[in-house]
Amino acid sequence: MLIPQLKLKPSLWFFIFSIVSFNSFSQSFLTAKDKQIVNEQGENVLLRGIGLGGWMLQEGYMLKINKDGQQYKIRERIEQLIGAQQTSAFYDAWLTNHTTKKDLDSLKRWGFNSVRLPMHYNLYTLPTNKEPIAGKNTWLEKGFALTDSLLAWCKANKMYLILDLHAAPGGQGNDTNIADRDASKPSLWNSEANKEKTIALWVKLAERYKNEPYIGAYDILNEPNYGFQNPEADKNGTKEKLNEPLKKLMVDITKAIREVDQKHIIIIEGNGWGNNYNGIFPLWDKNMVLSYHKYWNYNDQASIAGMLKARDEQNVPIWLGETGENSNVWFTDAIELLEKNNIGWSWWPLKKIGFNNPMEIKSNPKYNSLVNYLNNGGEKPNANDVYEGLMELAKDAKVENTIIHKDVIDAMIRQPFTDSTTPFKANLIQNNTIIYAVDYDLGRNRKAYFDLDTADYHVATNKRGAGNKGRIYRNDGVDIAKDSLESDKFFVNSIEKGEWLQYTVQVAKKGNYSLKLSTASDQNEGKLSILIDEEAVVKGLSIPNTGGLKKFSVFEVKNIPLKAGKQVVRFNTTNGGYNFSYFQLIKLK
């Protein structure tokens, strides 16, 4: 394949070559070779993936349930309201609908090349305390059948599937929601039966998939977070110095897998949610990758210095196995940083009830009533309403019923490699077209828009940033609120001095236009300037006081000159304190 001689920045060249590398070979087993993940032709493979969180294992926050958020507790409380039969019907519908071939088709079309499957052990085998014969494993077909289907969909799209044991028998940490852990029962670490079952499950998986090249790797234990030496002061193991039980179990799992499968990469994770590798080195297998997880810190070289040091010292590839839950600015910066350093990644998650992921599962009034009861108590909701709300939620988990956040996808797949902007909508200026303020261009901060608060860096700063304070519609720094009168309308709010929004428009006819703006303000201080193709056409325009920040009114600016074709309109805020709903450009006769 020939690549034209273009003057591109190094990160973009790397992006092009890695895409060529991934798409130009027939599917083959991945292997760890020195500091790279390679295919059987020895070509570097950069994994661009996403985690299917919430499918096999529901964490409460993904369902807006913030009290008793372990899956088993959520299920128990639902069962108390609607009974075991209807509860099972909901969970069956959820597993059927949440992830389908259409999801994988979408991911491939958008530009992803891999998925990470967070597995709950209880879909594959019984808990140790429920085994009919102690020490003997009962295998359940449900989990294996779901995994087989997912693998088939990955094959159809030539994507790698990484198996991730997200919830191990007994639970691998004190952050109990992550692994659906019941803290009243023996954990993974203080139960030999749980350890043996964990090893046996990996052997069963390895036996089943040992000849499958579309299985990219085995991520053998997600986010251990357990204090072994000082559990009272360091319950999540972030300061653990030795990690002896963790290393022993990972070595035992590796040895057991290698008895049946010598081909697949084995991915390991450190303690403290994946990042504490004290005591883990030296490594014990030649085909191994180190996984790290990265959340809410800066996206600079210093933020990955520990990963790079381990890669160099151990001569082993590294992979960012989980990251996300932030703004588009953070996503773009993180991916640019990672790919400059040849680090593959898997985002978290694909979908949930919430806006900062590629797909958003819509909630519904009856489900909202259930959530309110589970979080706050009060009068029990009607059982029929609970069941109907849950089944509607399960139906809306289907990809075709979700809200697709193209701004998130653009921030992950396109924006890390270019400063260019692209229209969010077509914006054809004819017949009094309304352009909503929230539909500003897609692109980086300072290129498509400028906002002062763009991401959450609280791990580095100890202060949470909001990004979009409204947490709705889009995932940039621009603050967006929902119109209380019209459920499908949104507006830009919390506009501050110096912030701006850009809109690429297509003008049907050259001429002078009347610009109508719908704004709301409770003061007389808001001002903005208007630029067309970077040339100011209006300066110091005063925003009227409408009597309230939700009381929108339209005012007009005449004689805005526009040429035919593509133009860029920018609204620069020279003094804030107003909200912005929409604008129109109407040709004057």
From TrEMBL:
Record-linked Pfam families: CBM_6, Cellulase
Keywords on record: Carbohydrate metabolism, Cellulose degradation, Glycosidase, Hydrolase, Polysaccharide degradation, Signal
S-adenosyl-L-methionine found in the keyword field: no
Top-level taxon: Bacteria
Domain CBM6 residue range list: 455-586
The keyword ATP-binding appears for this protein: no
InterPro entries for this protein: CBM6, Cellulose-bd_IV, Galactose-bd-like_sf, GH, Glyco_hydro_5, Glycosyl_hydrolase_5
Family to which this protein belongs: Belongs to the glycosyl hydrolase 5 (cellulase A) family.
Name of the featured protein: Cellulase family glycosylhydrolase
Phylogenetic placement of the source organism: Bacteria, Pseudomonadati, Bacteroidota, Sphingobacteriia, Sphingobacteriales
